[in-house]
Amino acid sequence: MSIQAKAFTFGDDINTDYIISGKYKFKSNDMNDMARHAMEELDPHYYERVSPEGGILVAGTNFGCGSSREQAPLVLIHSNTRAVLAKSFARIFFRNAINTGLPVVECDTDRISEGDEVEVDLEAGVVKNLTSGEQIPFAPLPSVMARLLADGGLAAHFRKHGGFALE
After folding, report:
1. Up-side HSE of residue 91: CA atoms within 13 Å toward CB?
2. What is the pTM (predicted TM-score) of this model?
3. Which one of 83, 95, 121, 134 is least enclosed by Cβ atoms within 10 Å?
4. How many domains is the chain built from?
5. Domain contains 155
6. Quick one: CA dihedral 147, 100, 73, 81, positive or negative?
């Protein structure tokens, strides 16, 4: 599975309240509506910038820290964020992302700048910065997680296979 899009960069310690503010959590269950507010605390125009063509969110350490909001990866998906690259993730966000079908990759993000064209090859374990020509290796996901992502997340996998088929 390969994903190519423009990079949208953020820093360290991006918590779930930055991804989707708690003030929207109880206003709507419509993820398309909530997606308009993705990352707005840090970039009020993120949705308008990423949604037309899609993008890859690039961050530093501890991405997704804070409360365990499943809405956080869902609003990123619905904003047309195709993947998240970070130096490290909060574990609960990482699992929620895989379960909802959002590709997440731990890698060195220092060599990716705002606006760079990036290609992520999940099977080969490499991020290619097409703008600079650099290649950034990463440890590919375990096969179980890769299968869940390929099927669109945990619920989609369950529907597709009539149960769990994770061998």
Report:
1. 0
2. 0.94
3. 134
4. 1
5. yes
6. positive
Cβ atoms 84, 102 nearer than 8 A: yes
Give the β-pairing of 81-86 and 117-121: unpaired
Q: Measured between alpha carbons, how far is 60 from 143 in angstroms, rounded to an integer?
A: 25
Contact yes or no for 51/79 (Cβ under 8 A)? yes
Task: Tell whether 167 is covered by a domain.
Answer: no
Report the b/e string of 83-113 with b at 16+ CB within 10 A: bbbbbbbbebbbbbbbbbbbbbbbbebeebe
Residue 68's pLDDT band (boundaries 50, 70, 90)?
Answer: confident
Judge contact between 54 and 80, C-beta under 8 A.
Answer: yes
Domain that holds residue 25: 2-161
- List the alpha helices (DSSP H) in 36-129: 46-50, 71-78, 91-100
Instruction: Kindly state the tokens that stand for 44.
Output: 């009020």
**Coil/strand/helix, residue 127:** strand
Convert the pLDDT of each residue in 69-103 to its tens digit: 789 999 999 999 999 999 999 999 999 999 999 99
Q: Which amino acid is at 63?
A: F
